[in-house]
Specification:
The chain is of the alpha/beta class and 428 residues long. Helix content is 38%, strand content 13%. It contains 11 helices and 12 strands. β2, α6 and β3 form a beta-alpha-beta unit. α3 crosses α4, α9 packs across α11 and α10 crosses α11. The protein is globular. 51% of the residues are buried.
Length: 428
């Protein structure tokens, strides 16, 4: 017997039928996986090149405490990010706790009372709605601070209504926010080309409007980043793609120097900005994670494609399709009912390296309007670059799967999810 098959059957409880079903799905993706490898190789060279250009040495890993004055490791990390993403400057800090926090810092740093914020890609992700405060009152939100907000509904097929962008820009529109990933929404994640077209239309009306892209889940999934098609700011979390599974915390804001500086003044102290902020011994993890990030994204993309192929073969709706161009690491699978959704997530948990004995159940979560189920056996709490799956308990009962630091883990995790659904009679 094949040794890999043997360990899957004996130690993970995978049936021969489930194992063969996954292998057959994998065989359909051979050519597609080679295309993913090409993107990974290009991005890996980009990252290494930025490290060499900035003369990264072991001395940069020492870190700082207290005020963080003259932290050379922090400075070189930010130059590496800026050069990799082709931007003027970057703010990369462990004091940023999440992607939502990074977006909050960028928004509050660059908006003032009376300004208008526009989202041309529909409603933002659930947690950002609290930051904006337009649809539900939250103390300390942008709305509470006097910032106006509006968004443009997506077209019925989930695409951006390009023709309505210009007419929704107001004289006081200061910033346009573009969410690259789908969030908990059944729409295609945005390609870099689509983001470029949105920015082009905004700048045609007023070139002074700041175009900010929520780049979470999208880094290194393509040859270029949104900052290379006109984005003034790109924002993300280090416990997603760019942290490579090694960053214990953090976020980044990269783009034009003026707007990055505004964000830095919001994060630390006006007048001090980027000059302060201790790294507390995590510089090596941040830099090594960034070095590892293209490979981690490679595993995540292959895991997503395999999940799409398996469940499309079983008759479930998937977005994107198995061999469709991917613009982030998120794979949506429409599981038709809450029982299937819960079974899938509990199966993913059984395939985890950490907390595999835990059993996730739906529960309320801050920032969401319904119960959420989250399956994640992660070395870093809340990490979305490690293999995980989560979903709101509401129609159309779609699960959002992401991550996989390496493809073998993603593959066995999918086998465990599928096996759990078979064991519970959800699928045959």
């Amino acid at each position: 017997m094949d040794r890999t098959k043997e360990i899957a059957l004996k130690e993970y409880g995978i049936s021969p039928q489930v194992y063969e079903r996954v292998i057959k799905a994998e065989e359909k993706l051979e050519a597609y996986f080679k295309e993913i490898d090409k993107i990974t190789e290009y991005n890996q060279l980009k990252v290494i090149g930025a490290m060499q250009k900035n003369r990264l040495t072991i001395d940069h890993f020492c870190g700082s405490t207290g005020y963080g004055y003259d932290d050379s490791g922090r400075e070189v990390t930010e130059r590496i990010y800026a050069d990799t993403f082709r931007t003027e400057d970057a703010l990369v800090r462990p004091q940023i706790i999440s992607g939502t926090h990074a977006l909050t810092v960028a928004l509050f740093g660059n908006l003032r009372p009376g300004d208008h914020l526009l989202s041309p890609v529909g409603s933002p992700y659930d947690t950002l709605e609290g930051v904006i405060g337009a649809k539900r009152k939250v103390r300390g939100s942008l709305s509470d601070w006097g910032v106006e907000y509006s968004d443009i509904d997506l077209l019925p097929d989930g695409s951006v209504d390009m023709e309505r962008i210009a007419e929704n820009i107001r004289p006081n529109t200061r910033l346009v926010t573009i969410q690259r990933s789908k969030g908990y929404c059944l729409r295609p994640s945005l390609s870099v080309e689509t983001i470029g077209e949105i920015i082009k239309r905004v700048k045609a009306v007023n070139p002074e409007i700041i175009c900010m892209v929520d780049n979470c889940y999208g880094e290194f999934t393509d040859y270029i980043e949104p900052s290379e098609v006109g984005a003034d700011l790109i924002v993300g979390s280090l416990i997603k793609n760019p942290g490579g599974g090694l960053a214990p915390v953090g976020g980044y804001i990269a783009g034009k120097a003026e707007y990055v500086e505004n964000a830095a003044y919001r994060l630390t102290v006006p007048g001090m900005g980027k000059e302060v902020g201790p790294t507390l011994g995590v510089v090596r993890s941040l830099i090594q994670g960034f070095y590892q990030a293209p490979q981690a994204v490679n595993g995540s993309l292959k895991t997503a494609a395999l999940g799409a192929q398996i469940f499309e073969d079983l008759g479930f709706g998937v977005m994107p399709l198995p061999t469709e161009k991917r613009n982030d690491i998120v794979q949506c699978i429409q599981l038709k009912n809450s029982e299937n959704l819960i079974s899938f997530c509990q199966g993913v948990q059984k395939g985890a390296a950490v907390d595999s004995s835990a059993l996730p159940y739906p529960a309320p979560m801050p920032g969401y309007d319904c119960d959420i189920i989250m399956a994640a056996g992660a070395f870093i709490q809340g990490s979305s670059i490690e293999f995980s799956a989560d979903a709101p308990l509401r129609e159309p009962y779609a699960v959002y799967m992401q991550g996989g630091l390496n493809y073998p883990h993603g593959k066995i995790g999918l086998m465990c999810a599928l096996q759990n659904m078979v064991n519970e009679g959800r699928i045959k």
